[in-house]
Amino acid sequence: MVKAMDIKWEIEPDIDALRGAYSLLSTDAGECVKRLEALAGHGSVMSMVYLGHIFSGGTQMTRDWPRAEKWYLEAQKHGSYIAQFNLGAHYYNNKEFDRAKSIFKIGADKNDGPSMHYLACVFLREGTKESLNTAYSLLDRASTIGHLRSRLLYSKLMLGGRFGLLAIGRGVPIFVHAAIDAIRGALTTPSDELLR
Q1: Do the domain assignments include residue 88?
Q2: How many domains is the chain built from?
């Protein structure tokens, strides 16, 4: 399973320069971007991710989706899960569901819980019997590997009869256990990726 925090720090060409460049974001965004772009030119994948993040949701001065997409795509080409997921999330949030589907499918094929969850959400929006079955399968897989948001959604859909009447009874214990796990996780490790 891919972990959201699978950052390969050991392949970063200059981690101190990366930290220094990113630390400038709050005081001098222009210089921060300039330094990160230079590091990206030397193969720093994390600088590409940072640039994508800065341009996708940064300050009014730095918000520039075409540039964010460029950097996320570049980081994705270099194997960054974070960039790939953020790219899919942007497409999903902006209702570009076909593009989101293709990005989340990559993560789902690697058994990544958050990718399976969001891919299931795309299929649920389609509303056909075939897409509902695909969503069911994805949520079941994500639930099996412990992705809590998927377990909660899966069980809620079961309880609501979306997967047939027989699934209602099966949804009760899944929902109860997922709710307990979610509360426990939120209290002990609120940043846990399984809650994402």
Answers
A1: no
A2: 2
